Amino acid sequence: xxxxxxxxxxxxxxxxxxxxxxxxxxxxxxxxxxxxxxxxxxxxxxxxxxxxxxxxxxxxxx
Length: 62
Hints:
Blueprint: H1 6-17, H2 28-50
């Protein structure tokens, strides 16, 4: 194959696509997952503290 052909120039481009993402973003996914779990846990705790432990009188007979 001649050096100036299209296939010869596309081969190195395919090798650069397989590079791993930069290491500085490696923390982003675990941090977002942990933040989501913490947000759900805090929300559930707030609902539990302010809600479900008191008797309601919505269906009481007078």
